[in-house]
Amino acid sequence: MAFDIDMIKKVYDTMPARVDKARELVGRPLTLSEKILYAHLWEGMPSQKFERSKDYVDFAPDRVAMQDATAQMALLQFMQAGKSTTAVPSTVHCDHLILAKVGAEKDLAVANTQSKEVFDFLSSVSNKYGIGFWKPGSGIIHQILLENYAFPGGMMIGTDSHTVNAGGLGMLAIGVGGADAVDVMAGMAWELKFPKLIGVKLTGKLNGWTAPKDVILKVADILTVKGGTGAIVEYFGEGAKSMSATGKGTICNMGAEIGATTSTFGYDDSMRRYLNATGRADVVDAADKVADYLTADPEVYANPEQYFDQLIEINLSELEPHINGPFTPDRGTPVSKMKEEAAKNDWPIKVEWGLIGSCTNSSYEDMSRAVSIVNQAVELGITPKAEFGINPGSEQIRYTIERDGIIAAFEKMGTKVFTNACGPCIGQWDREGADKGEKNTIVHSFNRNFSKRADGNPNTHAFVTSPEMVAALAISGRLDFNPITDKLLNDNGEEVMFKPPFGDELPTKGFDVEDPGFQAPAANGSSVQVIVSPDSSRLQLLEPFQPWDGQNITGAKLLIKAFGKCTTDHISMAGPWLRFRGHLDNISNNMLIGAENAFNNKTNSVKNQLTGEYQEVPAVQRQYKAAGIPSIVVGDHNYGEGSSREHAAMEPRHLGVKAVLVKSFARIHETNLKKQGMLGLTFANESDYDKIQEDDTINFLDLTEFAPGRQLTLEFVHKDGSKDIIMANHTYNDSQIEWFKAGSALNLIAAGK
């Protein structure tokens, strides 16, 4: 039986009437995305039509999911809310704090020792508040969600941007900051601006070397890393129906890389097959009764241009395998063009590592298709030219592929089998030699490839591709190898050629596992004690942020004017910093250390206006805070793209930054700033970014009149005494302004408001 089957049945019981009412209010057929949104309104039965990209709407998600790195801060906040249990089913998954180095067994043992304090804390908090707890080694959050919790037509929020993976089973699953998760766990509404809709019509059928991964790599190339911002991407067409549920999950997963709110597919036979294979026949029975409500109305897919804000069409029969990168997941290169592109851009041709897995591509189908290439290499007598590593998505996947001989086949090629965890995908990789900073190339099936993300080396050129292409490129040792047309020399000097990959969508013997790693919470957690040592370097109980004093912010100093790409990795790095995710003061020592200073083109080097010296960003901000001087951060386009980590908002808030003024925001980060009681502002005129000078002092002239739709006026006083008046836009509504006034959204929850 599925987890929380009664909750799922309740969703299906109420969905038809709500969708029918919404269709009446909107006055036209509905997309799947609209059906799920209107079926999950906080008010219950819809009473009005909402305008896309304009109206803020309160929703009631069905469940909450948290990974260990973000769960620490989320649950520390939830402890402040004064609740005895979570209002909706919630889970914690320990997958981020395990360093990949030697191999699964030893790496997991090290993590269980080094992070014992954190794992014990998460286990006890989960036990106390009715939260399901998935132990270290159980698997990657998004694969476990797909295997156990995702269901067609549901709505889930998760404290990780790749929560969107669950769209592979027809959900609206959305990445959020921890404060949003706390709201929902505390029984409050969750607010979202009603999204735009992007339709992707898939015709034809995948064949040969082309995989579901190539669909999203192509979409990322078309839309770029910000092209999906504020939108839900809905995939449909015969091509969509021809793909597996886990393949759909891969496509939805990387929707985070185009800034999409989420992505989804309509309920179909592939989802039925997957739900049945993962022991959820009861979900299939319930979903089949309302199947028409779990996909768009027929008129929508027949004439999609009338119902979507943007429409993309991809013929899968003509789609080539893609290799995206380096340094950004939206730079797409078809495999046939890689030789030319690599030479033109001086990319290192030699492939040093091939990495398969992560939440994006760690399903049984992924592993079976990749190992089909590995098996061919063994049969053809080819010794791989690059090193290999795999991360199974869950203990269920690992156990099953071990039973079926897939792991043994990988190990014949010298593959390192890492823990069922994120590992290199999030920088949790102790790669030998990375500290030398040498220029090199790696290929992986992950979702992100920003500079320094995998191994900390800014000169590592990371390319994203499908698991089967990773296998082929790593075995050949060349980035410009095209397995469709190129031959290789085997160990005997003979020319050989790979056949296209093949693999089972689902294991023919079924899934199997001895211990999935799940800990059910106590039936009554009132007596469970949660202990946080005051001397801990890993965990720190939170103090509420101070409310706004009702006055204009004056005398603020410019902390940094960030130039170019400034992701949440730049604002709050992962990797070795993950160990401090539960200690706000300690992790604040990584605040903005990866951002490039526009005035000297250096990272972690800004001018201290108190001394005139250049120092590390956190050190300068701590001096401003100690002196009682407010500060602001200025940034470029799509500021805060990437991970959902709320630390990127909480660290500046904790250290005394009052506002972030940028050309544009990534959605999740803007919301995180609002939740923490900060001012997230955008230039009314983007060219005003160029007026900001290094020694500026900033005064807000009309913050006392802060109101929805009303611009704010900022005075930038330069070192020579001259001034520039800059107008700033914002997207705060009345309730979000109350968060600012109270000091944070959590302060209002704790006050019972």
Fraction of helical residues: 25-40%
Q: Assign the CATH topology of the largest domain.
A: Aconitase, domain 3
Output mean pLDDT. 96
What is the gyration radius calculated from CA atoms?
Answer: 25 Å
Assembly of the depicted chains? single chain
Strand order of the largest sheet: 22-25-26-27-30-29-28
Q: How many β-strand runs?
A: 30
Would you identify the CATH H-level superfamily of the largest domain?
Answer: Aconitase, domain 3
Family: Belongs to the aconitase/IPM isomerase family.
Catalytic activity: citrate = D-threo-isocitrate
GO cellular component, one term: cytosol
Protein name: Aconitate hydratase A
What does this structure look like?
This protein starts with a helix and ends with a helix. The chain contains 25 helices and 30 strands. Helix content is 31%, strand content 17%. The strands form eight sheets. The chain has a seven-stranded mixed β-barrel. Helix 11 runs antiparallel to helix 12 (281-288) and helix 15 runs parallel beside helix 18 (467-476). The protein is globular, with a radius of gyration of 25 Å. It has 753 residues and is an alpha/beta fold. The mean pLDDT is 96. The chain has three domains: 5-43 and 52-317, Aconitase, domain 3; 321-495, 2-Layer Sandwich (Aconitase, domain 3), CATH 3.30.499.10; 556-750, Aconitase, domain 4, CATH 3.20.19.10. Residues 34-477 form the Aconitase/3-isopropylmalate dehydratase large subunit alpha/beta/alpha domain. Its EC number is 4.2.1.3. Its cofactor is [4Fe-4S] cluster. InterPro entries: Acnase/IPM_dHydase_lsu_aba_1/3, Acoase/IPM_deHydtase_lsu_aba, Aconitase/3IPM_dehydase_swvl, Aconitase/IPM_isomerase, Aconitase_4Fe-4S_BS, Aconitase_4Fe-4S_dom, Aconitase_dom2, Aconitase_mito-like. Belongs to the aconitase/IPM isomerase family.
